[in-house]
Amino acid sequence: xxxxxxxxxxxxxxxxxxxxxxxxxxxxxxxxxxxxxxxxxxxxxxxxxxxxxxxxxxxxxxxxxxxxxxxxxxxxxxxxxxxxxxxxxxxxxxxxxxxxxxxxxxxxxxxxxxxxxxxxxxxxxxxxxxxxxxxxxxxxxxxxxxxxxxxxxxxxxxxxxxxxxxxxxxxxxxxxxxxxxxxxxxxxxxxxxxxxxxxxxxxxxxxxxxxxxxxxxxxxxxxxxxxxxxxxxxxxxxxxxxxxxxxxxxxxxxxxxxxxxxxxxxxxxxxxxxxxxxxxxxxxxxxxxxxxxxxxxxxxxxxxxxxxxxxxxxxxxxxxxxxxxxxxxxxxxxxxxxxxxxxxxxxxxxxxxxxxxxxxxxxxxxxxxxxxxxxxxxxxxxxxxxxxxxxxxxxxxxxxxxxxxxxxxxxxxxxxxxxxxxxxxxxxxxxxxxxxxxxxxxxxxxxxxxxxxxxxxxxxxxxxxxxxxxxxxxxxxxxxxxxxxxxxxxxxxxxxxxxxxxxxxxxxxxxxxxxxxxxxxxxxxxxxxxxxxxxxxxxxxxxxxxxxxxxxxxxxxxxxxxxxxxxxxxxxxxxxxxxxxxxxxxxxxxxxxxxxxxxxxxxxxxxxxxxxxxxxxxxxxxxxxxxxxxxxxxxxxxxxxxxxxxxxxxxxxxxxxxxxxxxxxxxxxxxxxxxxxxxxxxxxxxxxxxxxxxxxxxxxxxxxxxxxxxxxxxxxxxxxxxxxxxxxxxxxxxxxxxxxxxxxxxxxxxxxxxxxxxxxxxxxxxxxxxxxxxxxxxxxxxxxxxxxxxxxxxxxxxxxxxxxxxxxxxxxxxxxxxxxxxxxxxxxxxxxxxxxxxxxxxxxxxxxxxxxxxxxxxxxxxxxxxxxxxxxxxxxxxxxxxxxxxxxxxxxxxxxxxxxxxxxxxxxxxxxxxxxxxxxxxxxxxxxxxxxxxxxxxxxxxxxxxxxxxxxxxxxxxxxxxxxxxxxxxxxxxxxxxxxxxxxxxxxxxxxxxxxxxxxxxxxxxxxxxxxxxxxxxxxxxxxxxxxxxxxxxxxxxxxxxxxxxxxxxxxxxxxxxxxxxxxxxxxxxxxxxxxxxxxxxxxxxxxxxxxxxxxxxxxxxxxxxxxxxxxxxxxxxxxxxxxxxxxxx
Length: 1130
Prior knowledge:
Elements: H1 3-17, H2 34-46, H3 53-62, H4 69-81, H5 86-119, H6 125-129, H7 133-159, H8 202-212, H9 220-230, E1 247-248, E2 254-255, H10 262-274, H11 281-323, H12 328-355, H13 381-387, H14 398-405, H15 420-434, H16 439-457, H17 461-472, H18 480-491, H19 496-507, H20 516-528, H21 533-551, H22 559-574, H23 580-592, H24 596-615, H25 620-636, H26 641-654, H27 669-681, H28 687-695, H29 702-712, H30 723-733, H31 738-758, H32 764-779, H33 785-797, H34 819-831, H35 838-857, H36 863-876, H37 886-902, H38 904-917, H39 937-949, H40 951-962, H41 977-997, H42 1015-1028, H43 1030-1035, E3 1036-1045, E4 1048-1057, H44 1061-1095
Antiparallel strand pairs: 1-2, 3-4
Helix pairs in contact: 1-5, 2-4, 3-5, 4-5, 5-7, 7-9, 8-11, 9-12, 11-12, 18-20, 19-21, 20-21, 20-22, 21-22, 22-24, 23-24, 24-25, 24-26, 27-28, 27-29, 28-30, 29-31, 30-32, 31-32, 32-34, 33-34, 33-35, 34-36, 35-37, 40-44
InterPro entries: ARM-type_fold, MIF4G-like_typ-3, Nmd2/UPF2, Upf2/Nmd2_C
Protein name: Nonsense-mediated mRNA decay factor (Upf2)
Organism: Purpureocillium lilacinum (Paecilomyces lilacinus)
């Protein structure tokens, strides 16, 4: 609905609020029949569309309706809840305005306002808590879908003054207005009477209620709908793309309209000056203030969720490094968080653009595996190899080194007295190893042990409970901070009994939780600095368990226990908690008994701590000797292939063969400079300076042009918001380097096709940027709509071999893959609003029918994709009526095909008119929409095949061309006889090859030779007929009917009316063949002329659309015509 109509409705509705009667004219005698009134109510509930709007308005004028007002109010509310498209919403606003003007606020509007306010109220939290998570999620989806339409309806009704404030709302059951008639679900300001300026506007109160208590920001999609639909009418901010297609000037500045449209531009300027927002500035500021407060809360939510995602990513990375996999529930939870965050960020970006706010900077939190984060993650191979000049070191990366070497110093975290118990035992143990024990010291030691036993015996029960709680936290130790904090907490509970209980708990590893072994080993190593009995007790237990398992070799069910035991020893070895003799004893025992079980144990031990033993100076010689012995024993002993592979993998992991470092791509200073200009420095403020820098480069050097072509062909490397700036730069460079622009456009289109062939999810972001780039190039006049539509159809049909068919599986486009829909949506969001008339408008209508059919061939659409499709149709064709299922979509598509075939002939006749009108191109070079774009090779090849197939028909029509009148419009050019003879020879050779290639084609089923009628008889028959009976020839048309009697073939002439279907089809076919012959002659005649022009490019007249190859054709306008048939003497 245009704003002029809104202002007109607003004036009428305000008159109804002021109490005027007969604002809406009704007929003198009103029909009160039950059938018509109930039918009106039923249609009002289910069939509010743009097509039924005149019927509704007529019935409101002629029907009584007064006795059914309560039913009309409820039916009207239900009908408004079902509206989806902008056309349906406009129709609903018209109908509600008519009812408001006829019945007035007291009988209709106030009750409807109460129902609308109730529909927009936030749900009761206590009710939601009683539902299951699945039911709660379903309820929220239904509410969002319902309120998505209601919010637009309420705002539109407020703009046309049907609704004013919540104070005007009255509950339908109340008989007296104003007494308990306010909406209980929405909080209304107290002390504001009806129709006073103190009350807030209806949509503002609704937004406050929706946004004020929305801590989880579930209503953000509703706000996005509001901002997109009413950014200009309420907020006074114009939406992107509202200025139309732009032309880039020499300095890179974009102008909206071309010179050929100056008169229209003046008219448009005047219309825009008078078309001001419908909301006054002070009220717009109040709306903007509510949005600003909510946006601040959303940004805090985004930052908070980003940190949570970052933390979850680190935990997943740690789990992957420890166990080699990430559990499915963890991964699913992480992916769910990332998707929710992406939706939150995209919706917040829309709101930020509307209110002019800045999005939070999330760049620091984008890389969850950054080496500076302190987590166990991944390192780029190049950085890793550069840091390890002599090959890989002890640790795989810096994070792993910090985990195993940077242990927390408990002395700085807890009081020293808490560590004395363990230190005493440690010093005593050292003295006993180093020298003889003095008798006095021995007595002191005995006393200390007695004291320890007494302290254990009288341990406080409260401390025991705290130790139990601490031990219960052991299975949850999955990150470094939690491990260190547990060690500090244990120091406050330090006693011999507590340490014994800790050692016992650490020996009981839960089944299947091998990921805990590094964490527990770190805890043991941290405590072992001051409590040596903890690592000593644990190592003694593991060593005894290893020896026990070796004695029970025939117990195959203990395989998991063996692996857990040896892995635990390996992790403690990397912390330096296992004596050297213990680990090498395990290696020696496994090597001596070279069975399959011991080979697995040996390989696990080598993979987990072999690199540490080999790179550690204290153990390196012994480990190198052991690896050499292992290799020799593997070569001389007969073992299976799986065991050999295990040994090879373990040895190569510990001591990989020497290999050269990965060579990093070396970029020239020029390439680095260009990449920095375009990928890093390019912004809205400085793109003019960037353009000047690029123009100053040495374009005469092929290397520089190749670098620029590579950079401009990769829009995925540019920030998504700066892709249109890349289009501006390319459009500005087109004036000076048109060939360069052609290559870039070709590269982008080829990259889009390559993405369809690969269909790898890793390239989705890049593919979105590429189709966005194509749309921006159309906006800045670098290509025309045939290229866009060819790309769209290729996206829809690639891999199907035709239109998609439900049930036919396409490996490039599975039924549950909706990415192609998003590609099409991106293109149409970028440039689809300009396909509103002319040939482009017809093509878009046809494509939308096909797109609608394609959408229903997919599986059930997610809500996000469904909203994307609805937004596309609302943007490009607001009045489009969406179908409900696949059958209706197929019927609509078949109807569009039939309509297109039916109007194909009329379109060909109308093309010369389009040249003068220039309806869809907004350019002064004729009808560029009908000119073939650059790179449309498929149509060209198809036309060449048609030329070869129609070579037999050419001889029939030669006489028609020979009879054409000779009209010389310019100086006649001389033709060299030798060139003409060469051309004839080449043409005859081409025809002969075509006939030769068709000899082996399958013959049709009807292989009867047609009888040849004598030409003289036809000529003699045609002569008198044309001279003597011209009226008969115009009313009938002669056909030859072939019959067969026995072995004889007979022909007879049958006269059919000229207006019959067969006669019309024959005339149409003859006309098409004649036009095809005309086109072939154009191509043949202009062949030499194009070659001469290609050799002399400086004499070629410049046109605006250089991205298409200059091919003379019947579709070209008069300003780019090269040669006409009438210019040559045939």
